[in-house]
Amino acid sequence: MEPEAEMPTPGRITRDDVAYVARLARLNLTDAELEGFTGQLADVLDHVADIEALALDGVVPTSHPLPLSNVFRADEPAVGSDDDADHRLFCEEVLAAAPAFEESRFRVPPVLGEAP
Amino acid sequence: MSPETCSGIDGWEVVIGLEVHAELATATKLFSGARNEFGGEPNTQVDPVSLGLPGSLPVLNEKAVELAIRVGLALNCVVQPSEFARKNYFYPDMPKDFQISQFDQPINGEGWLELPDGRRIGIERAHLEEDTGKSTHVGGGGRIHEASYSLVDYNRAGVPLIEIVGKPDLRSADDARAYVSELRAILVTIGASDGKMEEGSMRVDCNVSVRPVGEEELGTRCEVKNINSLRSLGRAIAYESRRQVDLITLGQKVDQQTRHWNEEEGRTHTLRSKEEAFDYRYFPEPDLVPVVPSTEWIDQIRMAMPLLPGERRHRLAEEADIRPEAAALAVERGLDDLALAAMDLGADPARVLVHVENNLADGQGTLTADGFAALVAMETGGELTATQAKTVLADLVSSGGDPALVAAAHGFEAMESSELEGLVESLIADHPEDWEAFVGGDESERKKKSGFFVGQIMKTTKGQADGRLVNEILERRSTSR
Amino acid sequence: MSAFSLAGSVRSGERTARSIVEEHLAAIADGETEINAFNLVMADSALERADRLDALVAKGGDPGPLAGIPVALKDNMCTRGVPTTCGSRILDGWRPPYNATVVERLNDAGAVLLGKTNMDEFAMGSSTENSAFGPTFNPCDTTRVPGGSSGGSAAAVAAGFTPLSLGSDTGGSIRQPAALCGVVGVKPTYGRVSRYGLVAFASSLDQIGPFANSVVDAAMLLEVIAGHDPMDSTSIPAAAPDLLGVLDQGVEGLRVGIIEEISGSGPTGLEGFSPDVQSRLAEAAETLAAAGATVEKTSVPSTVFGLSAYYVIAPAEASSNLARFDGVRFGLRVDAENTVDMNAATRTAGFGDEVKRRIMLGTYALSAGYYDAYYGKSQKVRTLIVEDFARAYGSYDLLLSPTAPTTAFPIGEKIDDPMLMYLSDVCTIPSNLAGHPAMSVPFGVGDDGLPVGVQVLAPANGEASMFRAAAVLEAATGGLTGSTT
Ligand SMILES: [Mg+2]
Ligand SMILES: [Zn+2]
Fold this sequence. Notes:
The complex is a heterotrimer of chains A (116), B (481) and C (485).
Chain A: H1 15-24, H2 31-48, E1 72-73, H3 85-96, E2 101-102, E3 105-108
Antiparallel strand pairs in A: 2-3
Helix pairs in contact in A: 1-2
Chain B: H1 3-7, E1 12-23, E2 60-61, H2 62-74, E3 85-88, E4 98-101, E5 111-114, E6 120-130, E7 134-138, E8 149-153, E9 160-166, H3 173-189, E10 202-212, E11 222-227, H4 230-249, E12 257-262, E13 267-273, E14 283-284, H5 295-303, H6 309-320, H7 328-332, H8 336-344, H9 349-358, H10 369-380, H11 386-399, H12 403-409, H13 417-430, H14 432-440, H15 443-461, H16 467-480
Helix pairs in contact in B: 3-4, 6-8, 8-9, 8-10, 10-11, 13-16, 14-15, 15-16
Chain C: H1 3-11, H2 17-35, E1 38-41, H3 43-58, E2 70-74, H4 101-108, E3 112-117, H5 151-158, E4 164-169, H6 175-181, E5 184-187, E6 207-212, H7 215-225, E7 255-259, H8 275-290, E8 294-298, H9 306-321, H10 339-350, H11 353-366, H12 372-395, E9 398-402, H13 418-422, H14 429-434, E10 438-445, E11 451-457, H15 463-477
Parallel strand pairs in C: 2-3, 2-4, 7-8, 7-9
Antiparallel strand pairs in C: 1-3, 4-6, 5-6, 5-10, 9-11, 10-11
The structure holds magnesium ion and zinc ion.
C-alpha cells in the first residue's frame, strides 16, 4: 500500500467526537475508556484514509450485493389470530422473555421525552 | 381571498405546510404477516419482525406498495423507483430502534392536490414507512413527564404508513382544514386508508411560519405535533401564528422548534429546538431491495382507480354548468352519480342540485335516478309545487316507487291556474291594505308582501298551490291595474 | 467416515442415530473443557431427537439427507426455546420464540442439533477471543486461536465433536477459522442461504455457510440449507445448486487466476503473508494445473481497499442492527431512573469492548457530516471491487488466494491491537463486499505444523465450479483432514 503520511485525512477523530457517538449509541464511557477508544478508532480511521485518495467521482455506490428488485410478500396474514393456540404460545414466549411486563405490555422506566 | 382575511391577523400572512401520516388499509403489516387491525389485545398482532427480534428480516407487503402508488397517482405525483432507508433513533415504541422509511428515493415525488375552490396545493413527496408501537404513561395523570413508568404495546408497530409532505402553499387555518378534508376524501375514495383521525389512522403535523404581507422570504417555521382533529388543526394554527406574530411584534425572534399542541390548554409548547435536532444517520436499508414499479403495473393501478373527488366535482360542474366549488357538497355526499344520471334523463340541473343540497342530506336511500328525474320533470312541468316535490322525494328516499303514484297518494294535483286566480282575487279583497302596500311599495316592501300573499295561499291550499304561479298572478295584477 | 456416508448408514439402518450422537457427546465430554467450542451442548434433546429418527427409520421412513447427523450451530442462529447468546452478556439466557430458516431446514433434513457454538461477540472478531463466555482454543494447538468469529464451529468440527457445523461469514468468519483449524469452510453467494433468524452483524455482508471435514460433507450440508426463502428479501430466487453431482468433474479446462494483491505477491500487494502460506498456495496452483486447469497470476487491484471499505460498511450496518439491544423487549436489562439511562446502562454492561468499538465506529461513519467521507466513499469502493472482480471473471472461472496471511496465531497476540487483528481478514473480505462465494480448503501445514487453508473464489452463483476445484485440492492432500471420527 501507498504511504498514508501525506494524504489528507478527514480530520482525526477527537475525544469529543467519540463522546458524541457514544451518546448517540447509548453507551456510557469512563474517561479512561474514552481515551482508549479514541486512539483505537483513530487508528482504524487512519487506515481507512487510504480510500480518501481514490478518484471516485461518478462511481455509483453499491449497497446491495445482489441485483434484485421488487421482492414482495402477499398481503395475507402469516400468523394466527388471537384464538390461534400456536400464536398465543408465541405471544406468551415473547412476554416471558421480556425484562419486565405488565398487562401484556412491555414495562419501561419513565420515558423522558416524546419520540423525535 | 386576500392574505389579511385568511390569516386573521392584519398585515401578516401565515404560511402553512402539512405533513400527513395515514395508515394504509392493508390486512397485514408493511414488512411482515402480522395483522394490521385496530384495537386488538396488547402485543397479539405481533411476530418476530414487528417486535424487532434479533434475526428477523423485513419483506415488503405488495399491497402497501400498490396503495402507495394509488396515493401517488391520486396526488398527481411522479411515481418512481424507490429505496428504503433506516432512520436511526432510540425510542421504546420503536422495536428495532430504527424506523424503516424512505429518504432520498421516495416512491412518489412531486405532485399536487386541488382544493374544492380550484387552488392547487403542492405535494413535495409521499413515501412509505412503518408505524411505531404505542406507549401508555402510567402515573402523573398520563403525562409523559410526570409518569412513573410506561407500558408499550407493539400491535401498531410496523403498520404501513404513507407520509404525505405538502409544500408550504396553505395560507390560513381554513386552507389547512380544506386540504386535510380533501386529502382524507381522496384517501378514502381510493381505498388507501380509512382516514379516521380519531383512531389515529390519520395524523397531521403542521409547519407554521408568519411574514409581513408582501414579504417574499419565508419566516422561521415551527412544527406543531399532536394534532388529532380538524378542529385542533384550526385552533393550533390560530394559536401558533398569533404567538409568532406577537414575538416578532415585540422585537423578538421566532426559534425554529418542534412544538406540541395541547388540546386542553389550547396552546403549543416547546418539544425541542433545532439545536437538539436528531442525527438520524440515514442509510440504505440493507435487508430490503429497491422497488422499481413497471409502467405496466402503474398503468394497471391507474386504470383501476375510481374517480377522485376533484374529478367528480369537475364532471358534475360541467354537466350542470356551475363552478366546481358549487358541486362540492353533492360530491361530498356521494350524490353526484345520482345527480348526473338524473340530468342524463333530462332533469333540470338546477332543480336536481337544489334537491341534492337541501333535501338529500341523509343520502339517497331507495331513490333511483329514474324516480328522481321523473319527479324533477313533474316539478318543472308544474305538476308539483316545490313543497310537494320535497314531500314526494322524502317518500322516494324512504320507500321508493313511482313519483306520479306517490304524488297521487298524497292527493297532490296541480291546481288549475283559473282556480288559483280566484283564490288570489278574494285574498286581495280581504286584505286591501296589504295589497296597496305591495303595489306602491319599494323592492323590499314588495318582496315582504308577496311573501305574505304566497304564504296565505299556501295555507288555504295546504301547500298544493305553486308559489311561482301565485307570484306571477300578483305581478300581473299589480301592473295591469 | 464422512458425514455423507454416515447419513447413508443411518438411512439404511446399519447404524443408529443414537450411537452417532452418543459417540460425539462422548468426544465432547472428553475434550470440551480444553477447547471450549460450545456455549451450549444440547445432549438431552439431541438424544431424544436421535431416538425419534431411529424410530422413523425402523418404521421404514426416510429422515432425509442428513439422517441422524449431528450439526452444531454458531450461537447467532435462533433456536426456538433454546438459548441463543451471540457470545454476548446482553443476550445471556435469551430463548428466541422462533427458529431460523436454516434450523427448520436442518430439522426437515433429519439432522440432529447438537449444540450452540462459541463465537466472537456478535461475530465481531477474528480469533473467538471476544466472547463473553471465554475464548475457544484451537484443537490443533490449544495455545493458539481457532480464528473467528465462527471459531467454536470450526473447532468443534476439527476436534471431532461434531461432523458438521454452521457458521456465519461477514468478512471471513467461516473461511479464516476453517483455515486455522484445518477444516473445510464455505461462504456461499450472498443470498444463497437464508439469513432469517441469523442475528445480524452486517446485513449486506452476512452469509451462513457450512463447516465440514470434507468437501463432500460441506456440499451436502450446503445443499440442505441453500435455496430460496420468502422470509428473506435478499434471498436468491432459485433452488439450491447441485453440488454433490459435480464433485467428481475435475477442473480440466477451467481457467484459474491467482489474485496477486491478496497473496502477498506483486507490486501493489498487501504485506504480512508468511512464506510457508505462500508456498502452500503455489503448490495448490500446481495441483490444479496438473489436473488440467490453466493457472496464472492476475490482478484484482481494488481488493487492497477492501479492508478499509469493510471497516466502514460493516460497523455502520452493525451500529444500526445492534440498536435493538436496548433492554426493552428481551435479554439483559440494567435498571435506571429513566428509559434513556436504562438503555445506556444495559448496553454498557451488556456489550464487550470490540462491539462497543464497532458500534461507535459505525455511528461515526454514518453521522451527519461524515457520511459522504466514509460510508458514501466505501459504497463506491465496493462498486470498484465488484467491477474489478467482473473484469477478472471475464478471463477466469475461478480465483485463488490464501485464506489467511498466516497460520493460527497465539492467543492474546492481537487482542489489544484491533487494527492488527483486522488485517487477518484481508484475503476474505473482498468476496463479502462483492457478494461472491468463496471457500477455504485445508492444504497442508506451515512450518509450525499448523494447518494452512487455500481460498477458492468464484463469481456469484459459481459454487459448482468452486466445489470442483476444492475437491481436486482435497484429493491431493489425501482428504478428510481434521477428523478424529
Ligand atoms: Mg463452553
Ligand atoms: Zn414519518
